[in-house]
Design goal:
two-stranded antiparallel ribbon, 10 strands, alpha+beta, 169 residues, 41% strand
């Protein structure tokens, strides 16, 4: 069972490059009385405007994109390795067509600001501060960036304040 303890963002001991790029995250937002989630492996954490923040990138065609657009808050959560199959599922299936939460057996917890799952090892509750569409005109290194956007389906970047960190002991 979940045993979450709130900690300061400055107490997160995990390597953010491994958390996001290797372990992957779930971005989760409210969807009516429920929620939807998607896997993210691009993003980061840092300091912006004197606040601890996340940088999350979502393509507009993703079902979760509209939910994040509509809400002030979302969660970014991280999981033990045994959830790799569920994270893969959440990254390849659309919430338009399948209830990913049910299919993966996740247990939703509805924080007053954003939902997350009891199975997470670490959760960031994020409040959107800034959003901007990525675009071809801003690309500097075309050899690295443009192959990621063969369909001109650029991500939208969200810079969000980490308002709460929960560690599952």
């Amino acid at each position: 069972m979940a045993n979450f303890k709130e900690i300061s963002p400055y107490e997160v001991a995990s390597n953010p490059f491994e958390l996001i790029g290797k372990d992957w995250a779930l971005l989760t937002a409210k969807n009516g009385d429920g929620c939807n989630t998607m896997t993210a492996s691009w993003g980061g954490v840092g300091i912006m405007w004197n606040k601890p923040v996340t940088f999350a990138f979502v393509r507009p065609q993703r079902f979760t994109f509209g939910l994040i657009e509509d809400e002030e808050y979302f969660s970014m959560s991280f999981y033990p390795e045994e959830y790799r199959k569920a994270l893969t599922f959440c990254g390849t299936k659309s919430g338009r067509n399948v209830d990913k939460v049910k299919e993966c057996g996740f247990t939703p917890i509805f924080d007053e600001k954003a939902p997350y799952f009891a199975e997470a090892k670490l959760v960031f509750i994020c409040r959107k501060l800034y959003a901007q569409d990525l675009n071809k005109d801003s690309v500097i290194d075309e050899n690295t960036v443009l192959p990621q956007y063969k369909g001109n389906d650029y991500h939208k970047m969200y810079i969000s304040e980490i308002v709460k960190v929960l560690k599952n002991d």
